[in-house]
């Protein structure tokens, strides 16, 4: 195993060396880095050209310059020395500095989109596989192909127009006209009809429920002017929490397992009880505190599940942890919503919260929650754009993987020995269907870090993609190399992780040692 | 094809005896039975016919009265004149841009260029992928090692940098009217990696099969074995992959043109049109909608065609499916619903 990893890493370094040489040469070949100065008519033109030549060593031919760059880059590998030298960008800024900041922004953007895409995509894929050839299946398949065919820059313009400018206009006077309520409720009814299962009567009943629910909620939101002062409040957290508890128990243990259900409900109760004591604490929140609270939430969930006892504590723990995390998420969301009016009325925001470009509002004054909201509103559009496009492939992968598993002999065996449908799907099929998906996800994440180039460009999001493409357009090899180094290492490492993961998850697959 | 009708005799195990179909016939029959794929194929062909006949091609004049870079008088603020009931093109069906250029002519030209680049990328990338993958998989040994490490290197290099650099180099060398061709050629030179890996894996398994041994014993040369014996067996995988990669190729081309690294003005492509007109979304939305709709339509059609081809070529379909069998039994004698395979 160790031999295998070492050998793979060794090959990876060789590949990286070869590829980085090529990238450097290609970038250097792609144009003239002095073009803008040559055409300028500043009086000190010659001097400026001389300066840039010295800064970027342009008097050295590109193949030799690469080794100069490599010498500096190699120092990055020596830990704790802090002598990492990736050269200078064309404007004189050190690349390490620009790269560090850009990397943080890109990771922020990509992580959220990737997690959401995987979770939603896999859920959709599994559900459509279980209900193959239904209207739901055809609908989701069509949507998947449609999303797959959307150019990201085109979606971006639409999002900016409707999700940002349109929504901001709506927020100025948050009143939903009756016609809109009717249309949205009708769509909701149709969706409920498609998703519901069983006889036509039952499905129609579901459609009516969906229609009434949507209409009621929208009407209430409009009348109470919820969008101006959003919040969840204890009542909503309680109702949603109980629903989550039942849902989580159904998935994790089945409703027959009363102890699991009580664990989940206990988790909801703990969440509600700690709601008020937490508020003063949350007023002075820091990232560290939120992280500690998140860990505490998981521990509480585990504790409740364990104390509940019974023949299978693991099922209790699963149900309780899922519920606890979701309820805690709602409490957190509620706190963010409380900060919304302060953010909305901030002089820098001026009542137009959803941002169309950029990654943060410059000079924004405000506490932890206002800053957090600022990040959210900037991340919202690029995340949706990335999500739509990657969602499609995950749902397709998950669907075909699940379909293949459901036709396996061991699924038939599981059914034949009388296991319930939940156990068959969740225990036997779902876990095995996740194996190929896990490796695809690991493989994709490596590519995703560098794959947000166009998205970042359209939304003027100051991440690595933006850094990369601007440098490329200015024939500036050093930032290009910096970004390439990060994405290349990521791609190779995650590639290795994907292979190792596959052999770890599926014992039939052995790595070649 | 409704799967239920074909799988029913399979389950009973005693179908009426009839003459067997060749592999090609089976695939064709399955593909033609796939409504979504056939509809997409028809729409795609219609789009191509519209674009190439309206704009004219290779010096042959088209039937549309304006060309894509001709500046006309603005009529009615450049609003689209297309009417559906009664159908009437009007003066400028898709409207005009700020300068008065006809959007219909621009969009048709954009479709031509984008589709052309897409096909070139598909063909060049496909040819490279097949040759490299086949050599690596068939000869193994050092050939395999060298080619696969080369593939790894190309995979690690971000596609956009290769496409951008090669495209820019091409645009400096080649005359401007051949630029899209050069762009397609260059991008094709870097998108073969996925196909090469796939073909290699296919060849690695096929070369161990008995019919290859038989051919070798009969004295066939390597070339003959590769082209006559192994390649026809791998052709399904290749066709499907190339088709689906074409849909990403058209998105890649439009993205490159969008960031200014692909097709450049005065020529137009769909991505370039959107890039030029995105600022005008609130004042002249048609400039933005039409090219975008065509990108989505073309890409969607190709995806459905590729999906249909995958279903048609997939040998796993012949396998017995317990669920399907149960469904058939449960549904009989009711009408068999349209079945789509995966």
What features would you describe in this structure?
The complex is a heterodimer of chains A (513) and B (342). Chain A is mainly alpha-helical and 513 residues long. Chain A has 21 helices and no strands. In chain A, helix 10 (233-252) packs antiparallel against helix 11 and helix 11 runs antiparallel to helix 13 (287-308). Chain B has 342 residues and is mainly α. Chain B contains 13 helices and no strands. In chain B, helix 4 (103-139) runs parallel beside helix 8. The radius of gyration of chain B is 24 Å and the shape is globular. Classes of the chains: A mainly alpha (513), B mainly alpha (342). At the A-B interface, helix 1, helix 6, helix 7, helix 16 and helix 19 of A face helix 5, helix 6, helix 10, helix 11 and helix 12 of B.
Labels describing this entry:
heterodimer, A: mainly alpha, B: mainly alpha, 13 helices, globular, disordered C terminus
């Amino acid at each position: 195993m160790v031999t295998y990893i070492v050998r793979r890493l060794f090959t990876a370094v060789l590949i990286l060396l070869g590829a980085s040489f090529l990238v450097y040469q290609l970038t250097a070949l792609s144009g003239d880095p002095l073009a803008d100065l040559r055409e300028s008519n500043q009086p000190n033109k010659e001097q400026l050209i001389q300066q840039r030549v010295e800064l970027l060593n342009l008097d050295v031919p590109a193949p030799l310059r690469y080794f100069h760059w490599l010498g500096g880059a190699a120092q990055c590998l020596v830990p704790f020395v802090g002598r990492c030298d990736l050269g200078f960008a064309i404007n004189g800024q050190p690349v390490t500095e620009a790269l560090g900041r850009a990397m943080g922004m890109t990771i922020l953007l990509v992580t959220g989109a990737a997690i959401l895409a995987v979770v939603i995509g896999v859920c959709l894929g599994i559900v459509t596989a279980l209900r193959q050839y239904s209207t739901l299946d055809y609908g989701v398949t069509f949507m998947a192909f449609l999303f797959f065919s959307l150019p990201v820059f085109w979606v971006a313009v639409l999002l900016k127009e409707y999700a940002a400018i349109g929504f901001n206009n709506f927020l100025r006077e948050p009143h939903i006209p009756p016609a809109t309520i009717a249309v949205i409720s009708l769509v909701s009814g149709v969706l409920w009809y498609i998703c519901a299962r069983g006889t036509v009567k039952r499905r129609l009943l579901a459609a009516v429920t969906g229609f009434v629910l949507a209409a009621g909620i929208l009407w209430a939101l409009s009348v109470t002017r919820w969008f101006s002062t959003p919040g969840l409040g204890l009542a909503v957290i309680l109702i949603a929490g109980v629903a989550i508890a039942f849902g989580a128990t159904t998935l994790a243990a089945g409703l027959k397992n009363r102890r699991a259900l009580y664990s989940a409900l206990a988790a909801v109760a703990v969440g509600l009880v700690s709601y008020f004591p937490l508020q003063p604490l949350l007023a002075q929140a820091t990232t560290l505190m939120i992280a500690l609270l998140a860990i505490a939430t998981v521990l509480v969930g585990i504790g409740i599940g364990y104390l509940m006892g019974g023949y299978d504590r693991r099922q209790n723990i699963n149900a309780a942890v899922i519920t606890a995390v979701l309820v805690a998420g709602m409490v957190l969301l509620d706190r963010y919503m409380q900060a919304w009016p302060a953010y909305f009325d901030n002089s820098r925001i001026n009542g137009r919260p959803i941002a169309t470009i950029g990654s943060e509002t410059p000079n924004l004054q405000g506490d932890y929650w206002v800053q957090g909201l600022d990040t959210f509103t900037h991340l919202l559009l690029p995340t949706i754009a990335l999500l739509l496009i990657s969602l499609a492939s995950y749902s397709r992968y998950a669907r075909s993987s699940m379909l293949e598993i459901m036709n396996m002999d061991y699924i038939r065996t599981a059914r034949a020995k009388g296991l319930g449908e939940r156990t068959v799907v969740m225990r036997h099929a779902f876990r095995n269907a996740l194996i190929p998906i896990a490796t695809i996800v690991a493989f994709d994440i490596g590519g995703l870090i560098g794959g947000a180039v166009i998205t970042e460009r359209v939304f003027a999001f100051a991440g690595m993609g933006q850094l990369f493409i601007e440098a490329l357009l200015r024939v500036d090899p050093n930032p290009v190399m910096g970004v390439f180094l990060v994405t290349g290492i990521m791609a190779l490492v995650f590639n290795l992780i994907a292979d190792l993961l596959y052999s770890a998850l599926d014992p039939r697959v052995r790595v070649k040692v | 094809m409704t799967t239920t009708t074909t799988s029913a005799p399979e389950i009973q195990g005693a179908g009426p005896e009839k003459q067997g179909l060749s592999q090609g016939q089976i695939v064709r029959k399955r593909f033609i039975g796939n409504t979504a794929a056939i509809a997409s194929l028809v729409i795609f062909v219609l789009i191509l016919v519209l674009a190439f006949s309206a704009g004219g091609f290779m010096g042959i004049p088209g039937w549309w009265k304006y060309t894509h870079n001709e500046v006309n008088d603005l009529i009615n603020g450049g609003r689209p004149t297309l009417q559906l009931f009664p159908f009437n093109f009007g003066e400028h069906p898709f409207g005009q841009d700020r300068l008065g250029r006809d959007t219909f002519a621009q969009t048709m030209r954009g479709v031509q260029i984008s589709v052309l680049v897409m096909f070139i990328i598909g063909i060049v990338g496909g040819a490279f992928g097949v040759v490299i993958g086949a050599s690596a998989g068939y000869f193994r040994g050092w050939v395999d090692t060298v080619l696969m490490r080369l593939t790894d290197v190309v995979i690690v290099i971000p596609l956009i940098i290769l496409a951008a650099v090669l495209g820019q180099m091409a645009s400096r060398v080649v005359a401007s009217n051949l630029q899209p061709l050069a762009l397609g050629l260059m991008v094709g030179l870097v998108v073969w990696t996925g196909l090469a890996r796939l073909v290699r894996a296919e060849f690695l398994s096929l070369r161990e099969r008995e019919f290859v041994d038989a051919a070798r014993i009969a004295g066939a040369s390597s070339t003959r074995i590769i082209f006559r014996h192994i390649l026809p067996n791998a052709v399904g995988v290749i066709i499907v992959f190339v088709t689906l990669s074409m849909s990403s190729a058209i998105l890649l081309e439009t993205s490159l043109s969008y960031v200014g690294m692909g097709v450049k003005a005065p020529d137009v492509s769909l991505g370039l049109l959107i890039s030029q007109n995105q600022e005008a979304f609130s004042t002249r939305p048609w400039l933005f909608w039409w090219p975008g709709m065509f990108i989505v339509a073309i890409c969607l059609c190709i995806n459905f065609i590729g999906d249909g081809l995958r279903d048609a070529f997939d040998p796993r379909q012949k396998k017995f499916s317990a669920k399907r069998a149960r469904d058939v039994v449960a549904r009989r004698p009711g009408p068999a619903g349209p079945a789509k395979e995966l």
